[in-house]
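Go through this chain.

——
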Amino acid sequence: MKELNLHLYEGSGVPISERNQVLPGYKPLPDFDHPKNYIAGEGLRQAVNVALALGQPLLVTGEPGTGKTQLANSISWELGLPKLAFYTKTTSTASDLFYRYDALRRFQEAHLPGQEPLNIDQYIEYQALGQAILLTKPWEEVKGYLPASLQGKGPIRSVVLIDEIDKAPRDLPNDVLNEVEKMEFTVKETGKTFAAEQRYRPILVLTSNSEKNLPDAFLRRCVFYHIPFPDEKQLKEIVQRRFSAYPDFTPGFIEAAIGHFMEIRNLAMLKKPATAEFLSWLQVLRSLDLEQKDIKEGQLEAFAMSFSILAKSREDFERLRNKYRDRVKS
């Protein structure tokens, strides 16, 4: 076993320049987050296909880190469609899904000396779901409303991710019922209404961490699926895909790491580590150059370095340390 292969921050008060070292650039794992590596279980695949057949939004729940957000990337990649995303905030309103109007900029420019105010359309920026609806039209009709990255793409279907919709005020889902069902919206500042061509109806994926309940009327209009935490067989397949370029991830190493991780998940933790933490943890184990037996035995000196990946609270961190301190003593 070796320590983390960094040796850059020592907490010694000696700057790196005086240690004759150079801070290397960050090197992400190649293709680690590529959609081709996403594994959808049978239930999830069926839910996606039902949503496609019915033209209804797909609402996906599950533990944070189980791949809800990445699902939209996978659908987009496999179907060869553009992906647009809206990341919900606690201040989001229904109209924010479709467009944003910069009233302040228009007011300021209207009061500049000798400045002729621009057409009101110039102060409207269309957002993910609004862009998706515009993309269902021939691009000549809507080219003035779309950003440069989407010019010339329509008419086409697109995948729209509305991430963590449960963050939004409770009224937001109810306020967009008709708009989502009809796939149309009105810009109240101009009075213009845009309706999607139904053959190019956008594919809508909503994620929720179930922090609060969504309105029943909204839920009735969605196809629902809860992504369960992967079993050991599924975890093995995920690791083999994500780390296929690394020969040191042998079957024995992977099985030992999965067994140890499932043991950790079975602890009475306040927040159990999910798939995302598991994959990050594996990268740390690889940097430690642990042997298979080290992982199986769970030596404190090795695993103490990695607990900050698996534990997200002081209580859980101490719970892990105490468990493996006791193991080493025994």
